[in-house]
Structure formats: C-alpha cells, structure tokens
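User: tokens in, sequence out, please.
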C-alpha cells in the first residue's frame, strides 16, 4: 500500500518530464505584474491576462532590455516553460521581451531607415556645423512640456546672450509628425543660428512621430543646423540619424547648442590678462632699446656726427680749388704759346704759301685735260659712253659718237 504513495519530488519530476517536451520554445502575450528588476540584473515578474497568471524570470535582463518595464505594460515574450523543483510550480523562463505592438513598428522603422540611408539622408557630408556663438535659437516642441522649460533654463544659464524662439507643436499622436514638419519649415523665416527639434522621454509609441518620413525630410531640407533632442538615451530615432547633431535629451541639446558663458568669460579675462602682460613686456623691452639709443654718444653730441664730414668736405673743396687753378694756368700758357706762333703772327704769309701750291696743282690738271688734245686737231670716239682706243674694239654697223673741239657727231662703222 505504501508503494502507491509518491513523494512531492517524484510528482514534480513527473510533471517536469511531461511539460518540457511540449514547451521548450513558446511565444506568450500578456501583462506585467509585480515587476521588479533586481540589483543582480535579473528581472522577476508575473505575466497575466484576464483569467490566469504565470511566474516569470529573465536572467541578466538589465543589459538586454531596451525599455523600462513597469506594471500594467503589455508585452510579447519568447522563452520556455519548466517546473521549478524547489517550489513545485511551473515557471516561464524569458529569453526575449518587447512591448506589445513594437514588432510592427520596429519593422516599419527599419524599412524607412534603410530607404533614407540609401538616399543619402544620413551621410556625414550633408551635416552642417553647429555655430559656436549663436544669437538666436529655435525650438520645435510642445508649448507646455518639460522639454521647452529645460531648454530655456539651460540656455539662460549657459548663454544668456541668446534669444530662444518656440515653434509649438504636438509631439505625439497622429497629427504630431505633420505639425513638427510644418514648424521646421516655418522656422526658416526667422534667421536662426540653430534649431532644436525634440521632446522629453516616453514609450516608443509616444516617440514615433520622430520616426516619420515627413519629419526626416523636413530636417534634411532645413538650411538651419538642426539638433535632434528626443528624450531617450539608448535608442535612436530616424530624426537622430538625419539631424546635424544628436542629443540624448532636450537639456543636453541646449548644452550642445550654446557655449558656457562663465567659462567663455573666464577664458576672455585670462586672455585679457595675458595680453596686458604681453604688451607690458613689449613696452619694457622697447623702453630699454630706446634708452640705449638715447644714451648713445651720438645723440648726446650730435655735432660729432657731421664735424668729421665737414673736415673732409673742406679738404675736397681745397683740392678742387688748387686743381682748377692749376688747370687754368696750364691752359693759359698753351693759349699764350699759340698766340706767339709764326702762323698767328703772319697769317698772310701762310695764305700766300698755300695759294702758290694751289696754282701749281691747277696747272698740272690743265696739262692732263683731254679737251686740250682736241684743240690741237684731235678727236675722241665713244661707243655707248665708253672711249674707243683701238680699231679692233669696233664692229661693223656699230654706232659711234665722235667728239671734236667745237662739238660732236654720230657716225656708223662700215
């Protein structure tokens, strides 16, 4: 009779053997209850619906969860069911967990991300530099949300010289994406240095308007540098990829948009002090150079600079006077010598002498004049301007010019 009784452990083992083969890999939808993330990183909770519940655990969940779990949240779970020997109840061991409805949103997100990336909307060469010292910053966000308060407070604290202009918009819901895109386009008319687009944290459904294509293209087409400031530090939205700069929170966006006034002021004061010291040092160095020059003997006795030159000039003038007098005297002697020569004293004798020589040369030329030969009865024959000295130089029929003392005639050789 005793052999018919089973121990608790035996029953548990039997149940475990029955359950395991059929529930090695299950997909379960339910609602979180008694959710608690332990310091160890393990996540213990109860998964329930309207009629039933099951204890559940996810080991090392803190590094695997992409959202903050809380009671009442609808979730999709992938895992396995086993009997927990110690307590004798079955338990769901979770390998993956996501918010219910996120699956379809995630697929849409990945498809749009791939499409826009292929078009080049995420390329770094399209990113614009955020100005270092902005004068006017625009913010597209909810008018009464915490995001705009945090942004204004941060900018006033860090860079009070900057004006902040709010472009109010819905930041969740079906109409939010269209309003955000419209306000981004509207901001182009305000000559902004930087535009911050974002909101505070929330669920993926709350943030979904920043994953819409219309918002992505509005950010990409905006000529003003855009900082995306959607309040979620882990995941990225499509707006984060398209924006010129991504900030994890609105407060962080404000810090990235403006420089720290106090630090800039301190740096300017430091540079100011350094410039004064540098100028003072330059003044001292130049003062020393000036004193050195002023104390030189040349400036104390400036006459010493040109007195030696005066002596040199006097010597040159004296040498010039001596040379000029010597040259004048020499030329006067030459002139006196020339005046005393025979030619200048008896110019008529020189003329008579050269006149006799001239007459002698004329007589010689007269004796050689061929015209005198013609006067004695001779004639001169020419052919084509050339004088004929021999009969052998003539040909029959050739014309000749025969010149006599009193004229000339043309004739022809027979």
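Assistant: Sequence out:
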């Amino acid at each position: 009779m005793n052999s018919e009784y089973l121990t608790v452990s035996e029953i548990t083992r039997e149940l475990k053997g029955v359950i395991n083969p059929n529930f090695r890999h299950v997909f379960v939808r339910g609602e979180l209850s008694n959710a608690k993330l332990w310091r160890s990183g393990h996540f213990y909770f109860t998964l329930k619906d309207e009629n039933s519940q099951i204890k559940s655990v996810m080991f090392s969940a803190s590094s695997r969860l992409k959202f903050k779990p809380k009671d009442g949240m609808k979730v999709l779970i992938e895992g396995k069911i086993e009997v927990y020997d110690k307590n004798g109840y079955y338990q769901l061991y979770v390998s993956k967990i996501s918010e219910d409805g996120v699956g379809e949103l995630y697929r849409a997100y990945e498809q749009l991300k791939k499409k826009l990336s292929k078009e080049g909307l995420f390329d770094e060469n399209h990113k614009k530099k955020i100005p270092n010292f902005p004068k006017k910053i625009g913010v597209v966000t909810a008018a009464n949300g915490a995001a705009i308060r945090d942004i204004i407070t941060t900018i006033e604290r860090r860079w009070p010289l900057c004006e902040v202009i709010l472009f109010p918009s819905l930041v969740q819901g079906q109409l939010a994406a269209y309003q955000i895109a419209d306000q981004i386009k509207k901001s182009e008319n305000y000559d902004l240095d930087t535009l911050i687009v974002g909101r505070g944290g929330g669920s993926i459904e709350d943030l979904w308007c920043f994953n819409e294509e219309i918002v992505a293209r509005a950010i990409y087409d905006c000529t003003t540098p855009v900082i995306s400031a959607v309040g979620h530090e882990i995941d990225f939205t499509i707006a984060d990829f398209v924006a010129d700069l991504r900030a994890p929170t609105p407060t962080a966006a404000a810090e990235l948009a403006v420089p720290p006034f106090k630090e800039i002021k301190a740096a300017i004061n430091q540079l100011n002090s350094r410039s004064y010291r540098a100028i003072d040092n330059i003044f001292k160095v130049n003062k020393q150079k000036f004193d050195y020059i002023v104390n030189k003997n040349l400036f104390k006795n400036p006459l010493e600079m040109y007195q030696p030159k005066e002596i040199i000039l006097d010597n040159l003038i004296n040498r010039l006077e001596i040379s000029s007098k010597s040259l004048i005297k020499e030329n006067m002697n030459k002139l006196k010598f020339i005046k005393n020569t025979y030619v200048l004293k008896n110019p008529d004798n020189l003329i008579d002498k050269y006149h006799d020589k001239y007459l002698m040369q004329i007589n010689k030329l007269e004796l050689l004049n061929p015209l005198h030969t013609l006067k004695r009865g001779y004639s001169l024959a020419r052919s084509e301007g050339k004088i004929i000295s021999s009969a052998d130089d003539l040909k029959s029929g050739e014309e000749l010019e025969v010149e006599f003392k009193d004229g000339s005639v043309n004739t022809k050789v027979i």
